[in-house]
What does this fold into?
Amino acid sequence: MRPPLTLELLATPKDVPEVRRALRAYMGVPCADLQLCASELITNGVRHIGEGVPLTVRVVCGQGRTRLEVTDPDPRTLPVLCKAADDDETGRGLALLDAVTLRWGVEQGPGSKTVWCELPGIHAGSRGMVVGVIGG
It folds into this structure.
């Protein structure tokens, strides 16, 4: 079992491709669904809480699953799965996440919330623990 990946960032739209690259490097294999989920959760943080919000992205691999967690400092702004109309320009992110994951949810804590999802395990050799700060 590989150690978790933890990334801390002050989220901006430009951080999304950097996080996607960090996930690919950590996993050591293609991980498009994991990258898609991270992109959607980070984008939701920027859109609904604000640009520059501190986010922690964490990936834990084990027991045949890959768990992605994105933690932000606003326990009141909760994600809502909705059905976007054909002509809506937004509102499909959580539907995508729901479609590609085994399950997802939200954990609220004092002064924060974590939106998480689990995907089938992605297999590759261990890369070791990567802890980093992106952007800033």
Remarks:
- The first strand starts at residue 5 and ends at 10.
- The radius of gyration is 14 Å.
